[in-house]
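Structure (tokenized):
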């Protein structure tokens, strides 16, 4: 299983990933919109696999939207200047239903899923490798459609659901797709989920939590306990 370290673009974070030889990185368009500036922040860091995310949820929660043309141009810009040997994947531009803090209607969910599908096709037309995302609460008809269209899709449990509800939903998801395609679990890092489901890859930003609370992460290699 590939674990992607999710970060906001920062020279400090990229240097930490470089020092620890982290192979998989996920970063967001929401934090930086200049491809050259982002690559410059890398310094000597060279991941094997890079996922670019639109940051649509963060923007939507503030009452705004992401322009798909600007997002596509950013991703293409990164692709054009990316150092050789790095695999680039682009997360589809999600369309979130309703307004933040309000429970969306079934029609709003369906309309959002339809627009998300159109966004995926548009980004693919730009020559990008797109990870479309199936969200909890969406119709399972969309999962079937994604499974037939792509060999690598995203799976996103809902933040407003309990762990038991997420697990019940994931049970159904994997009863449908089994291991026929690769799946990326967004913010899926609980032991219960990682040990039970055959995700190809997952991501998490929790490793940066100490820094967000004013602490400094220190990685200790080959630590041996002496009596």
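Design, position by position:
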């Amino acid at each position: 299983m590939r674990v992607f370290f999710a970060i906001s673009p920062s020279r400090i974070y990229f240097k930490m990933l470089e020092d620890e030889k982290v192979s998989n990185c996920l970063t967001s368009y929401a934090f930086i919109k200049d491809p050259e500036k982002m690559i410059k922040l890398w310094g000597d860091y060279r991941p094997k696999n890079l996922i670019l995310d639109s940051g649509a949820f963060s923007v939507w929660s503030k009452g705004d939207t992401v322009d798909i043309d600007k997002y596509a141009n950013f991703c293409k810009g990164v692709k054009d200047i990316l150092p050789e040997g790095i695999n680039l994947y682009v997360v589809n531009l999600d369309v979130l239903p309703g307004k933040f803090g309000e429970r969306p209607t079934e029609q709003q969910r369906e309309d959002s899923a339809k627009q998300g599908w159109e966004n995926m096709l548009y980004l693919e037309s730009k020559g990008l490798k797109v990870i479309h995302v199936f969200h909890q609460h969406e119709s399972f008809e969309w999962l079937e459609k994604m499974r037939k269209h792509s060999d690598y899709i995203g799976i996103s449990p809902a933040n407003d659901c309990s762990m038991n509800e997420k697990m019940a939903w994931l049970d159904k998801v994997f009863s449908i797709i089994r291991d026929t395609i690769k799946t990326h679990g967004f913010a899926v890092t609980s032991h219960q989920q990682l040990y039970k489901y055959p995700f190809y890859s997952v991501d998490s930003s929790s490793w940066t939590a100490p820094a967000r609370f004013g602490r400094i992460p220190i990685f200790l290699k080959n630590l041996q306990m002496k009596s």
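Reviewer-requested clarification: The mean pLDDT is 87. The longest helix spans residues 106-125.
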